[in-house]
Amino acid sequence: MNTLIIYAHPNPNSFNYAILQTTVQKLQQKQHEIRIRDLYEMNFNPVLKEDYFTKQNPAVSKAIQEEQMHFSWAKQLIFIYPTWWNGMPAILKGYIEKIFTNGFAFTFTDEGAKGLLQNKRAIIFQTTSHPENYLKPYQLIASMETIVDVGILNFCGIETITHKFFYSVPYVDENTKKAMLKEVEDIVEMI
Ligand SMILES: Cc1cc2nc3c(=O)[nH]c(=O)nc-3n(C[C@H](O)[C@H](O)[C@H](O)COP(=O)(O)O)c2cc1C
């Protein structure tokens, strides 16, 4: 199975990096074909400027087309990122702005918008520092899920099978972190 990992964390000592490693190990055991887009390691420039895409200017640069080919290749997408200001880090937001272009990821028909990345499934691993009992009553989890799972992925035809939050990451002990990484394994095992 072709699995594309989109990873957005600058620090190789982070818990997000441990999630990445656990995910890769599990996918290797399952003999998936894996590609990793490590956005910080790639030094990805997230600012949509020269590549700004409109109907009047439909050219997509070669670099973006090459990035899009990874999504065409993949059957499964795994996003791994921390919560920064109640959403994804800007580098990942900019990546999506640049890669999920009109005509590649979605189009508009007489019946309305149509996702073009059909038959792909996504898993999201997202960490927080706030506890669940702060984030949920304010609907911050629901809003992050809606924006990513519905507003971005489903809009492009991708089905989110799991959007897993790991809460209070900087404050939990080592055993809790181990249990979280076991949950990562169990989720990756399902796919
Ligand atoms: C710029 C920035 C913004 C952040 N905003 C939030 C936030 O809105 N909500 C939250 O729960 N944690 C927030 N955090 C904390 C991170 O989500 C947390 O440290 C991270 O998920 C822990 O995983 P890590 O060790 O892999 O970085 C923020 C951290 C940074 C650096």
TrEMBL record:
Enzyme Commission number(s): 1.-.-.-, 1.6.99.-
TM regions (residue ranges): none
Gene3D superfamilies membership: 3.40.50.360
Residues annotated as domain Flavodoxin-like fold: 1-186
Keyword match Oxidoreductase: yes
Pfam families in UniProt: Flavodoxin_2
Gene Ontology terms for molecular function: oxidoreductase activity
Keywords: Oxidoreductase
Family the entry assigns: Belongs to the NAD(P)H dehydrogenase (quinone) family.
UniProt cross-references to PANTHER family, sorted A to Z: NAD P H OXIDOREDUCTASE-RELATED (PTHR10204), NAD(P)H DEHYDROGENASE [QUINONE] 1 ISOFORM 1 (PTHR10204:SF34)
Protein name stated in the entry: NAD(P)H-dependent oxidoreductase
